[in-house]
Amino acid sequence: MMKKLLFALLLLAFTMNAAAQSDTPEAPQLEFALQLKVTLGEAFAIENTQHGRRTVIPITGGTFEGPGIKGTIVNGGADYQLANANGRSEIEAIYCIKTDDGVYIHVRNRGIITGGKDADGKPSFYFRCAPQFEAPADSKYGWLNNSLFLCAPGFSPGFQGIVLNVWRVK
């Protein structure tokens, strides 16, 4: 009986909220989470595989910082890219970061890079990823486990590597 009542109340709240919304749903908001400055080793490629061209880019270190989080990128990860003949690359970077207070966090960052022409024939470039974090659940970084994130490349004058800006989807 209690479960049915709870379900009915949730359904009523959802229905009232849906009726109050316009025809266009509200887009999720983003909040800045951190910036990674990743140093890279020498890339190598495996040409013409059954899936395309596989490029491996070693991750050699770097730093990261955001509100309430700061530290270094652990040497030993890599960015694995798979390019097809149309110039589209699927990327998957797997590495670890270590906070300034000694907590290790695993990162798996998947995304796409593509270039080409837009509808007007102008050159276009798209590079977006969705990092997933695995932090100790009982640490102050456990919040990383329970959110979705988006990232895009950034720029830092004089930095030799890749800069990734990461936002949490609210």
Q: Main attributes?
A:
mainly beta, single chain, 170 residues, 1 helix, globular
What is the H/E order?
HEEEEEEEEEE
How many helices? The count is 1
Q: Write down the Rg.
A: 20 Å
Question: What does the overall shape look like?
Answer: globular
What summary fits the major beta sheet? 10 strands, antiparallel
Structural class: mainly beta
Strand composition percent: over 45%
Q: How many E strands?
A: 10
Portion of residues in helices? 10-25%
Distance between the termini: 34 Å
Whole-number average pLDDT? 90
Low-confidence stretches: none
Write up what this structure looks like.
The protein is mainly beta. It is built from one helix and ten strands; from the N terminus they run αββββββββββ. Strands 1, 2, 3, 4, 5, 6, 7, 8, 9 and 10 form a ten-stranded antiparallel beta sheet that branches. The longest helix has 19 residues, at about 1-20. The radius of gyration is 20 Å and the shape is globular. The two termini are about 35 Å apart. The model has no long low-confidence stretch (mean pLDDT about 90).
Quick recap:
The protein has one helix spanning 2-20, and strands spanning 30-40, 44-49, 52-66, 69-73, 77-83, 88-99, 104-117, 123-134, 149-154, 162-169.
